[in-house]
User: What shape does this take?
Amino acid sequence: MSAIHDTDTAPAAGSRLGWAVADSWTMTRRELAHWARRPAQVVVGLLFPVMMLLMFGFLIGGGRGVDGDFRAYLVPGMLTMTMAFGLEATMLAVTQDLGKGVVDRFRSMPMNSGAVLVGRSVADMLQSAVGLLVMTAVGYAVGWRWHEGYASFLGALGLLLLLRFAMLWIGIHLAMVAGTPDMVQAVQILVWPVGFLSNAIASPASMPPWLGAVVEWNPLSATATAVRGLFGNPGAGGDSWAAAHAGLLAVAWPVALVAVFFPLAVKRFRDLGR
Assistant: This one.
């Protein structure tokens, strides 16, 4: 009778999945509510990459080693860099929840333990998608065009969001390791050299051979090159293996990064209460 009773009261797998999805959506709505209460922060996050695009496109001018229309080369690169920038908002939100004991309160409630992280990641991805649309519209306004079909256009956006998803889980893990907002700001500084050590703005052909090789193997360079190819913009080719197989690397790099940092972030989150 005891075995029968346990079987009857145990939640079905479908029910557990449903509750996990519901809890994750509740946490996502919590993050979206924060947007509504702090619209200025959201607007600044959207306008910062636009400012970078306009600055490099008009004030600084042509990129090193870039032949032809620099803006056609620049816009896909800036779209890629946008996927790396702006992580500090997510990282600060994680550390603030940890510091205020919010995560501990959530962990004490009858809810899926991973819903907090999933909700944070979904909200970040939604904001990243909006940011991509804003940047694409601004690029179109300044004269950038894509020359392939809509399928290639959507494929390029998919690669960009895949990169963001990987960067997001790196940021969540580092935020829990850092623990405080002050340390997050120190970690965020490291994003800048990683972003600029790519082919987003300048061609590796204009760099010393050793530096060009490092740049071509940067995950951001792989995505930027693959996206340029899907858009039909200049800078999609190259003689090196990394440049010739940018599409493969644009998928392989984010998948590998998620495979490493997603389990690390989940494990770190589960160990917080121990």
